[in-house]
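Weekly sync, protein design subgroup
Attendees: M.S., D.O., the rotation student, P.L. (late)

Item 1: inverse folding check
M.S. brought a backbone from last month's batch and wanted to see whether the design step gives back something sensible before we order anything. D.O. pointed out we never logged the input encoding, so this time it goes straight into the notes. Structure tokens as presented (240 positions):
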């Protein structure tokens, strides 16, 4: 684990930040003066990302967010820098690739999908709620259009994200002093999205960095808690 020296900067935790959207969000937060503590299951990828971002404001904690000891380490690393005012639950698990129908979905795989996409974000939020409440902070749970659209073959991932959306909405109702968002980035060129469409060319999908301005707008404007699509938060000229 690596951490930075404590600074008078806002502190954020971003999960699943070794690549894709998590990495793009982390880079943007660093550019905007945040201290950021990140995690990722692949220690080598996380280390490579840290080298590429090359920031003294970045702390890395390799591990799986479904592991309670890892979550405790992640929280401790962030609190060593100060009270956390932003939690981005970005880490996700797609499930088997190609994705099976619900009729044939292996129970152990389905459990893993829910552990990563529902239970881990909620448990991490529980751990950091005292910080977020004290700092009038922001909680962002990264969602998906699969949470609201019944795509064939997306029963595991989609239903897990739907559960996360509902948990996010209830948490927002229970914690009215917090800004609590489900953030749907839309299709992107990511490893997970490629796994969802094995053998297909997804080069027409936007890069994760293209979603970051919408994410930053959510942080800057702090609308009432709710579910937001990146496409609806993008600058007018950038909307399709």
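Designed sequence read out in the meeting:
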């Amino acid at each position: 684990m690596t951490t930075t020296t404590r600074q008078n900067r806002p502190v954020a935790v971003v999960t699943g930040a070794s690549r894709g959207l998590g990495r793009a969000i982390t880079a943007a937060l660093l550019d905007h003066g945040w201290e950021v503590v990140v995690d990722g299951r692949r220690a080598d990828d996380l280390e490579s990302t840290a080298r590429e971002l090359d920031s003294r404001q970045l702390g890395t904690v390799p591990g799986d967010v479904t592991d309670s000891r890892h979550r405790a380490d992640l929280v401790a690393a962030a609190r060593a820098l100060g009270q956390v005012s932003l939690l981005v639950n970005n880490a996700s698990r797609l499930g088997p690739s190609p994705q099976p129908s619900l009729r044939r979905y292996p129970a152990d795989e389905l459990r893993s999908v829910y552990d990563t996409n529902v239970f881990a974000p909620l448990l991490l939020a529980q751990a950091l709620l005292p910080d977020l409440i004290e700092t009038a902070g922001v909680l962002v749970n990264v969602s998906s259009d699969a949470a609201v659209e019944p795509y064939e073959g997306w029963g595991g991932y989609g239903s897990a994200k739907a559960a996360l959306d509902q948990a996010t909405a209830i948490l927002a109702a229970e914690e009215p002093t917090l800004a609590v968002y489900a953030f749907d980035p839309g299709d992107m060129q990511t490893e997970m999205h490629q796994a969802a469409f094995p053998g297909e060319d997804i080069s027409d999908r936007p890069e994760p960095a293209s979603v970051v301005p919408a994410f930053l707008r959510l942080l800057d404007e702090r609308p009432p808690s709710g579910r937001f699509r990146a496409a609806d938060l993008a600058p007018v000229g950038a909307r399709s």
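Discussion: The longest strand covers residues 35-40. The chain has one domain: 11-230.
Action: P.L. to compare against the previous round before Friday.
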